[in-house]
Amino acid sequence: MTRITIGPFNRVEGDLEVRLDVESGVVARAEVTAPLYRGFEQILEGRPPLDALVLAPRICGICSVSQSIAAATALRAAIGCEAAPNGLLATNIAHAAENAADHLTHFYLFFMPDFAREAYASHPWHGATVERFAATRGSAAREVLPARARLLEVMGIVAGKWPHSLAFQPGGTTRAIELGERVRLMSIASGFRAFLERVVFADTLENVLAIANSHQLDCWREQRGGDFAHFLRLSDALSLAELGKGPGLLMSYGAYHDNEGVLFPRGIFGPHATAEPLPLTQITEDVSHAWMRDCSADPAHGATIPDADKPQAYSWCKAPRLSGQPVEVGALARQAVAGHPLFAELIAASGSNVRNRVIARLIETARVAVAMEQWIRALRLSEPFCLDTQEIPDGTSVGLVEAARGSLGHWLAVRAGKIERYQIIAPTTWNFSPRDSFDVAGPLEQALVGTEVGDAGPRAVAIQHVVRSFDPCMVCTAH
Amino acid sequence: MSGSDRMTNVLWLQGASCGGCTMSVLESGASGWFDELRQFGINLLWHPSVSEQTGEEALAVLEAVADGRTPLDLLLLEGSVARGPNNTGRFNLLAGTNKSIYRWMLELAPRADYVVAVGSCAAYGGVPAAGSNPTDAVGLQFEGADLGGALGGTFRSRLGLPVINVAGCAPHPGWVMETLLALASQDLGAADLDGYGRPKFIANHLAHHGCSRNEFYEFKASAETMSQRGCLMEHLGCKATQAVGDCNQRSWNGGGSCTKGGYACIACTSPGFEGSQNFLATAKLAGIPVGLPTDMPKAWFVALAALSKSATPRRVRTNATSDHVVVPPGRPSGKRAP
Q1: Which of A103, A307, B6, B94 has the fewest beta carbons closer than 10 A?
Q2: pLDDT tens digits along A179-230
Q3: Where are the beta strands (DSSP E) in chain B?
Q4: Is the pLDDT of residue A11 over 50?
Q5: Domain segments of chain A as ranges
Q6: What is the dihedral of CA A191, A193, A197, A200, to 10 degrees?
Q7: CB-based contact (8 Å) between B91 and chain A?
Q8: For the structural domain made of A2-478, what CATH number should be given?
């Protein structure tokens, strides 16, 4: 048995270290460490509640709007007020832009460059993959980065700037959109659709969204250009569906709420291969292997007090559990819970794995791009975008949202006009959690076990695929 | 770097960071940031978010810089330096090294021709230093507004400059790139920095300059609640008349800015901005905002404000408390030109 350490594990958002025990060239045990702690929950305590709108988004530069929405939602629940319908739509538009930009950033900048590594030089597809996806050099970045910047111009209109905006308030959004601005938003959304249809899918979004099972997916991608089909071919060549199996239980808090309802519903998707209600009160946090002092396991009553010398601990990340189980979150979970037939079938066939996570992210990007067009059209320009709100009474509340990489929750307690407690469980807190007190490993730790590293040791590229397939956001993880 | 025809070596590290400065700079460049860097002869030795090298490959890059084998022209840090607990830096170890970012910066900074703090965290401590500052977070050369920080107030990089602070949370992508390129061409010297280490081409302006709410400011026609069009200074916490930055002379994400977005400037380019509370409400004393323009006699400001308030046109007064234009500009008769 040899122990290998991989760090700095880069091309993820934030800091990550992975340690593996390797036996006969196969990973036998994994430990995942979040090596950065900043203490946002401690920083928020004692402050006026609305200060969370300034501080919480600054947990994360890549999912800042998600953090804003979680904070605004928790505050809205605490106040007991409504948001203006236009404000919810404008929030969805900005959130869609962030999440789609994140999916692109992940696919092109973080995930795909590993296939251009020298380790694959002997494969027939390597040359074309280097040309397209090599880190900082591939031709894709030249198209993707300007498309990403153009998409984020949504923020200039709706939210002032990105990252870190104060536009998302309990009562709605702070910028009323005028007719010319709505036209500009449509122009950005159309441009984004054109980019997806030309570069990512080489087909219309409608055709992509009509793919309902794996047979149709196989037919669709025959002879197809575009980067999604490129990935599917690599995935077959390298059997990525066999790699990085998740723990089996998937969760989504639900995403994109407006007055009509929700685009992606809340729920869990488990061994019975159907979506079921999410038992929210069964969410706990275990600190047995985190550099944290013991506290209530209920996030509504929890605390975050660092203890850097704690024995047995190996991460600043707590271990969230649902009914005692580790849970995987992300686009695959969202789409499975939302009842997308393709993902029900893919999961039934091969579970959660590297390939299915990436497919879900790209198909979801298409779904969100179409929804964004609808939300822009649905804005009623003569009506308010932000409603007045009241003082915040004592009490507790929760704000739940889906960031690009999964379920994000803020648990807020207010007392005498100040934040008494603020607890955050971020998507990668779930996915990259350490072990719990029953020694049950977190989702990535489980997904790494069984991965073949051969003689490559810490340079084994399969490890890179498994870790990055989760699209980790480490800055959110321990916050 | 001077007189050499090799590329400019840039190493970008992240400390106690949210990664937002990187997300911002990735918006730069007409054909993308990577092309832009290449066009200006910049060789990104390693960047945590975008470089291919990971694990031991990345460490090999860092070690070659640390022992002087690879010349380092610019060292960039994004995020504050967490010195805690007890000065060990263990709140932020560089993964795979069992060594804190704090120690890494102490080793690498003397190797660099220039050291750049990207964002207010690396510059002054920023948001992680708020409240009880649980991780003892500081900037590279400042702790809030006080000289000191991780490298100490007397630190000078190889070419004799203090740390260059591209403040902002997150900074405009142009601020980062223009500073970087001006340094690469040796066009930015110590005289081009203000007292807080910020490039003057940014810090010689106020966020207020070019604000689209200017007419409302002139007449002290103020928004009362979020999303209204009026000036945000009197009631809604705006600090743009005191905060440096050419924020409203640039376009953020294709045309935005904080005040255009309908919310207050929170002075994110200022050391210690994170220490404020109630960001979206104006602190007042006897009904007068505490934070007035810094270089104007307060009595004059109050007198002028009273005068301009009494002269406010109905159009401006009405629109100030509406979320869209209720009274358009035009002749009082409202007749359209033929």
Answers
A1: B6
A2: 999 999 999 999 999 999 999 999 999 999 999 999 999 999 999 999 999 9
A3: 8-14, 42-46, 72-78, 81-82, 93-94, 99-100, 112-118, 137-138, 142-143, 146-147, 164-166, 284-285, 288-289
A4: yes
A5: 2-478
A6: 90
A7: yes
A8: 1.10.645.10
Mutation for A interface: B47, B212, B263, most A CBs within 10 A = B263
B107 touches chain A (CB under 8 A): no
pLDDT in tens, B9-29: 999 999 999 999 999 999 999
Residue A456 and residue A82: Cα distance in Å, rounded?
56
Q: Which of B26, B96, B127 sits opposite A58 (nearest CB)?
A: B127
Q: Quick one: pLDDT at residue B2?
A: 46
pLDDT the model gives residue A260: 86
Q: What residues 318-347 of chain A have any CB closer than 8 A to a CB of chain B?
A: none
B94 and chain A in contact, CB less than 8 A: yes
Who among A16, A58, A141 is closest to B18 (CB)? A58
- In this complex, the residue of A35, A48, A149 whose CB is nearest that of residue B93 is A35
Is residue B336 classed exposed, middle or buried when 0-12, 13-18 and 19+ CB atoms within 10 A define those classes? exposed
pLDDT digits (tens, 9 = 90+) for A97-134: 999 999 999 999 999 999 999 999 999 999 999 999 99
Tell if the CB–CB gap between B16 and A36 is shorter than 8 Å. Answer: yes
Examine the pLDDT at B334 and tell me if it is beyond 60.
Answer: no
CA distance B65 to B75: 10
Is B88 part of the contact surface with chain A (CB cutoff 8 Å)?
A: yes
Sequence-distant (6+) residues with CB within 8 A of A462 are A243, A451, A452, A453
Chain B environment of A8 (Cβ under 8 Å): 48, 54-55, 58-59, 94-97
